[in-house]
Design a protein that fits this description.
196 residues, alpha+beta, TolA/TonB C-terminal domain, three-stranded antiparallel beta sheet, 5 helices, 19% strand, TonB_C, cell inner membrane, signal-anchor
């Protein structure tokens, strides 16, 4: 309380006068950085919008003031030249290919075809497996040729599958609604019945 009256109302000064200015310096640096990034992005955008263009022909000599029709004609001519340039730069569109013929695959007629009989000898010996056959189907739906694509490993199963599939009837493949000869892959599984 013994302090002189002029010192009581003063605010205490910080020991470091630069401490108050630091936040201002930091925000100033951030602002400069943001401005630089914005300028770079603007330049990038501007150059990407321009593309690579041929330099335009020199404009006609300046016209006397008041001859707005000459200026308008020059602008129209320049716009037309630019449109021609853009049109020639566009790639010509490829014509659509002709519609390809609609083809359906051959398929076995399940209701008419008997499943291969599991050979009893193979069943007794516990043999099982998968046989995959390639069947050439004529336009009339008959099997004209049958070949193995994958054998089961048991000759009895292979013979049973081949014998049965040779007798099968098929819905022939069709091209634009007309039957055609083709081939189809036919898998035949021989699975032992579960005991239980």
């Amino acid at each position: 309380m013994n302090q002189p009256p002029d010192q009581r109302n003063e605010t205490p000064q910080s020991p470091n006068p630069d401490a108050d200015r630091r936040p201002a310096k930091r925000s100033s640096a951030v602002l400069w950085l943001l401005l630089l990034v914005a300028l770079l992005l603007l330049g990038w955008w501007w150059f990407s919008q321009r593309g690579i263009e041929q330099p335009e022909a020199a404009l006609p000599a300046a016209t006397a003031p008041g001859s707005e029709t000459a200026t308008a004609a020059a602008e129209t001519e320049r716009a037309a030249a630019e449109a021609r340039k853009r049109k020639s730069a566009e790639k010509p569109r490829k014509p659509k290919p002709a519609a390809s013929p609609r083809i359906t695959e051959p398929r076995p007629l399940a209701a008419q075809n008997e499943q291969p009989e599991y050979p009893r000898d193979a069943q007794r010996r516990g043999l099982s497996g998968r046989v995959v056959l390639r069947v050439d189907v004529g336009a009339d739906g008959t099997a004209t040729n049958v070949d193995f694509l994958q054998r089961s490993g048991a000759p009895e199963l292979d013979r049973a599958a081949m014998s049965a599939v040779r007798k099968w009837r098929f819905a022939p493949a069709k091209r634009d609604g007309k039957p055609i000869a083709s081939s189809v892959r036919v898998p035949v599984d021989f699975v032992l019945p579960k005991k239980g």
